[in-house]
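lol ok so funny story. i was supposed to be doing the assay writeup but got distracted and ended up predicting the structure for this chain instead. priorities right. anyway since i did it might as well share w the group, maybe its usefull for someone
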Amino acid sequence: MEHSGINSELVKLLNKGDIVAFDTIYNQYCHRLYGFVFRYLKNREDAEEIVQEVFLKIWESRKKMDAFYSLDSFLFTVAYNSTITLLRKRVTEHKYLENLKLRQTINATPNLIDEIQFRELDEKVRSLLNRLTPRQQEIFRLSREEGLTHDAIAQKLNISSNTVKNHMVAALAFLKSELDNGLIINILFICLFF
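and the output, tada:
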């Protein structure tokens, strides 16, 4: 009996769930399939996994296999498709991980720099605020920390709204004069949300 005839008989037996036929097919093809897959993947564990997957698919679809269909073609087609699927998955995973690493690097650096700059600026603002007159400090903190309006501050301190405004103008002018122009925008941001 020819090789294809033997395979045809093995497939017929496999259709019926014959484990001996399955073992015979496995022993006949496992090394060839492994070599075929290994050429693409260059990884022993991955190649072994694909070969196991191929034989698992054969067993699961044994009742649907056509005895007249080339067993070689069927096995190597399943092996090839499984290999390509794994390669695509690995490429996608690699691209995803590279993208993730890139995003972490890009996002982490500015955040760290922003945090350092914010801390330095915050320290400088606190130092400058301590140089204001006690009344200016009080008005500035009521305005910026508690978010009170000039009228509310005036009412709370029992002074005129105009006096509150004058103290705020003087405090902001002092801060502006003590900071260079590059930091003025940053300090105004901190003053607004401080």
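The chain has two domains: 3-96, 131-193. Helices lie at 3-15, 19-41, 44-60, 71-129, 134-144, 150-157, 161-178, 181-193.
back to the writeup now i swear
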